[in-house]
Amino acid sequence: MRWRSRTIGLSLAFFSLAFFSFFLYLLLALDSLPDYQRPRDPPLSPRTLSDPHGDYTPVGVRGLAEPPTQEPVTVFRAEESGLLKLEALFDHPLYNGPESPIPEEDRLLKQKPNTKTSEKSSSTWSVASQEADKGVQWTSSVDRLPPWRRFQLGISRWQLYSHRDPVTEPLAQQLATHRIVSAVQKSGGTQLKLVMSFSNYGEALFKPMKQERDEETNYNLYYFSDFERHNAEVAAFHLDRVLGYRRVPPVVGRLVDVVSEIKDITTDLKLAQTFFTSPVGSVCFYGKCSYYCSTEHAVCGRPRLLEASLAAMLPDVSLEARRSWRSPWRRSYSRSKLARWESEPDYCSKVTKKPPYNKGTRLVDFMDMVILDFLMGNMDRHHYETFEKFGNNTFLLHLDNGRAFGRHSRDEPSILAPLLQCCRIHRSTWLRLQLLSLPRYRLSDVMRASLSRDPLHIVAPLLSELHLAALDRRLKTVLETVSRCLERRGGADEVIKNEVI
Ligand SMILES: Nc1ncnc2c1ncn2[C@@H]1O[C@H](COP(=O)(O)OP(=O)(O)OP(=O)(O)O)[C@@H](O)[C@H]1O
Ligand SMILES: [Mn+2]
Questions:
Q1: Active site at which residues (predicted)?
Q2: I need a labelling partner for 121 at 20 to 30 A (CA). Which of 133, 181, 447, 493 fits?
Q3: Residues 289 and 218 placed together within one structural domain of the fold
C-alpha cells in the first residue's frame, strides 16, 4: 500500500510538473503566434574582430592576447554560459517568425537589375544610390557589395536588419577595423560628434567617450544637460536587438587614434583648430557645438587612443527622407514647466484620438520604444524618426541613445508613463519580455554575453554589473506594470495587441 501510494504520489508530481512545463511553453510560444519551424541558422561565429593595426596596448589595459587576470576559469564559464543563453534566446520561436521575401514596395532602396548587362549575367546589379552620384557603379553581385551598402539595401518597412542577418557581423567588423580616411564634424547636433568615412565609401557616426563607465550622472544635473555616452550607444544597439526590435543601426566600440585617425586626416578646419596637448601629454580636442564643446570638456586620448562608438550610417536623407515626429510624451526641457502628460489624467485617450496614434500599430510601436528607454534609463527621447517612404505603417527608428545608461542606482518611473497611462503593448513584445525574465534567458546574462562580443569589451565591459542588474530590476517593473494593466482593464484583448495592421 505504502509503495503504491508513493508511486501514485510520484506520478502525480511528475504529471503536474509536465503539465506546468507544457502550460509555460504554451504561454510563451503558442499563445498567439504559430509555432513556425524553420531550419536553424548556423551558430554565431566567435568574435573575429581584432585590432586593425595590432599596435595598441594602452597602459593598465589588458592586451589582446593576454588571458583575463581574475579567476580565469569562473569568468570563462560565466561568459560561455551567457553565450549559450543568448544562442538559446535567438533560437526561440519568438525570434524566428515566418520569413517571406520582402516585396519591392516594402524595401527602402531599390535594387534594379542593370538592363544593359542583365542579359549577359543575372548576377549583375546596379544600385541607384549615392555611389552612382559619386560616379561609382556597383556592377558586382549583391554579396560582393561592401557590408555598409548591403546593410542599407536590407532595410525594410518593418526593421533595419533581419534576425540572423549575415551582414551584421561583416558590417561590425568594417566599423571596428577599417581604415578611417576622413573625419568631419556632424553639423546640427548639440554635442560633439563626427562623421567618419572608410575607403569603400562607408560612413559611421562617431561619439567619443566622455565619462567613465561606472561614473553615475550627477543627480543635480537635469536630463537635458546630461552627457552623451559612447558605451550607451553600443549597449542600446545590443539591447534593442535582444528585445527583438532591430530598430537601432549597428554600433560598435572602437579605440580611435586621435592623431592619425582624426587630426591628421580631417578636412574640417574648425575641428582641426580645437586640438591641443594636455599637461600630461594626452592629445585632446573639443570641436564646435552648443553643448560641452570647450577646453574644459575636451575629449582626450590616452595618450592618443580614445574610446568611441561608431554607428552605421543610414542612407543619406537626400536620398531617403526621414520624418521626425515629436514625442507626445516629450519632456518639457525646462527646469520649472510640466508637460501636458504630467498633469492631464486622461492624456492617453487624447493622443489615441489623433493620427498617427489612432490607427495601425503606431501606439504599440511607441510603447516598444518606451520600454527600451525605461530599461536603459533614457529620458531624452524628445523625437523619433521614420522613413518617409513607408508613410505611417512602419517601424520607429531608435536613434540617438547616448543619454541612456547614466544611472544604475535609480530607475526613472516617468519614462514608463505612456505604458502606465495607455496600457497597450504588442503581444510579441509582452511574450519576449516574459522570456527574458526567466533564468534560462535572463536579460542581464544575455546582455552581458552580447556585449562581450564588442571590440571594446577587451578594454572594459561595456556595461558595469550594476547597470546589468538594473536591467533585470527594471524588466520586473515593466512586467508588473503590464500585469496591473491586465487586472485593471479586465480583458487581455484591451491591453495585449496582436501584430495585425
Ligand atoms: N546612424 C545614423 N545614421 C544617419 N543619421 C543618424 C544616425 N544616428 C543619428 N542620425 C541623425 O543625426 C541626428 C543627430 O544625432 P543625435 O540625435 O545623436 O545628435 P544630438 O546632438 O543628440 O541631437 P539632438 O540634440 O537634436 O538630440 C539625428 O537627428 C539623426 O537624424
Ligand atoms: Mn540627442
A1: 380
A2: 133
A3: yes
